[in-house]
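sorry for the late reply, my laptop died twice this morning and i had to redo everyting from scratch. anyway the thing you sent over, i finally got around to it. pasting the sequence first so we're on the same page, its 138 residues, then the predicted structure underneath. double check i copied it right bc i was rushing
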Amino acid sequence: MLAHPIYAGLVMVRVRPLGSWVSAFELPSPRLTAIQYLLGVVELLCAIAVLYVLLPPSAAVGFAAFAAVFIAAIAAGALSGVPAGLGVFESILLVTLTDIPAEELLDAATRGVTQRNNSRLELHHHVPHGAVVLERVH
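ok and here's the structure:
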């Protein structure tokens, strides 16, 4: 988590190239970095929205509260060290969203993971390339 502010700070002070030992590695411009972070936020909001829509109609949880739980579950999965956070994400959802029956929540989560992975494939493989093209054009 601390890596993001450090990275943004390096980009803002325009450290290029990054050290003498990695002359081929250059940090992106602040504009491109902002675009990358913005796309990351959009992707995360889309993933949250997909799972939120898949929740059963009986779920009495607002979008903001669900987004907070979702982000906490993603963070816990990433910090757990378990490959792909397998089971950690779902466990956090089950522990925090107790008003939703476990079967319905897990059904929504497994369908949501499939949708989330498909959106990640699309965003991570196509959009950054488009951002680089836009950066090179301007």
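The CA atoms of residues 20 and 86 lie 39 Å apart.
thats about all i looked at so far, will dig more tmrw
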